Amino acid sequence: MKPFYDNQFLGVFIYDPINNDTLVKYNSEKYFTPASTTKIATLYTALNVLPKNIPTLKYHTTGDTIYIEGTGDPSLLHPYFKDSTALHFLKGYNHIKLNLNNFKTTAYGPGWAWEDYDAYYQPERSSFPIYGNVLSVYKNDSITITPSFFKNNILAMVAPKARDQHRNIFYNDLNKKDTTVTPFIVDDTLVKSLLDSALNKNVELIIKFPEVNKQTVYSIPTDSILKRMMAVSDNFLAEQLLILSSATLSDTLSLKKAQRYILEHHLADLKQPPRWVDGSGLSRYNLFTPESLVHILKKIYMEQSQERIFDLFPAGGVSGTLTNWYGGINEPYLYAKSGSLGNVYCLSGYLRTKSGKTLIFSFMNNHYKQPTEEIKKRMQLLFENLRDHY
After folding, report:
1. Does residue 225 lie within any of the structural domains?
2. Could you tell me if 342 and 278 lie in one domain?
3. pTM as predicted
4. Average model confidence (pLDDT) for the chain?
5. Is residue 298 within 8 Å of 360, Cβ to Cβ?
6. Closest C-alpha among 278, 266, 301 to residue 15
7. Residue of 94, 90, 66 whose CA lies nearest to 210
8. Domain count, the chain
9. Which pLDDT band holds residue 2 (cuts at 50, 70, 90)?
10. Structural domain range at position 185
């Protein structure tokens, strides 16, 4: 086994939480690029901060006028969730005044790849997301464009990129049958226009929210967003969940504020504090150790029911990003979050043994040049051995 790993960095930590027993420990205190296993820290934050249902907007009413501001809720008319709670609520008011100046987070995270501006997995972060901050072109018997607001912004042509870098001009070969999802550039005027169109009303942008106590409207169950984030490793949902968490903690939408809160109040006992720069793991600036990820997973294990945990995490051989790997014989035995970037593959989560024990593990591979499939095969052999013999 050793020659295979000679030219890469490998970190492993496998732990039995009931017996407080470390089974495998190799470079477990060293920092690695975690990729999307960063979402485990985001999940833990949401589990500790967010209420049962998503706070979709904050508001204050006076007469037939309503003042509103976003919370970062990603579900409003999202291609998957299609939630319209906020719209139904707002349709009862004649005058809608929208404040977007509570957003203190950049559109892109530190270290995100600039050339991926048109990639489906890198929508912009924002205070009042709508349609998932993406243009979706569905192609079946006919073509459906969502939001239709952009129907005149699509050029029917083949181009190196799906969108102009600096403008919401999109390039799409309408003769191909593939459905396409492309992030759009978010600005205040666009948010107003999309909301105007969705409500069929004129929304007024304001500079500042009145100095009053705000009320909150709640939308879909929080677990529905958490489960989707974990299953398909949705970067946009991960980023917005941290923004949502900050909206729950204060009126300022600051991803850093949510991270700082959870690190200081719930993860102050981490032996190796992470470098944690975004919610999704898109950035290579993130640094976590295997021990830190196991520590967070242990807290989740001790604080949540096993049923909820196994429902939120992808199941090996069954769901999400693990559908084609780590399958059980009659039922899943592994529930975990994977993380992939170029030359990076990590997997952290829970393993159920045949004897009925639950192990917590983190396996981090960085800077390898072999095919990722070979990395996964070796990990799977170890997991199956633990499942069958521990």
Report:
1. no
2. yes
3. 0.96
4. 96
5. yes
6. 301
7. 66
8. 2
9. low
10. 54-219
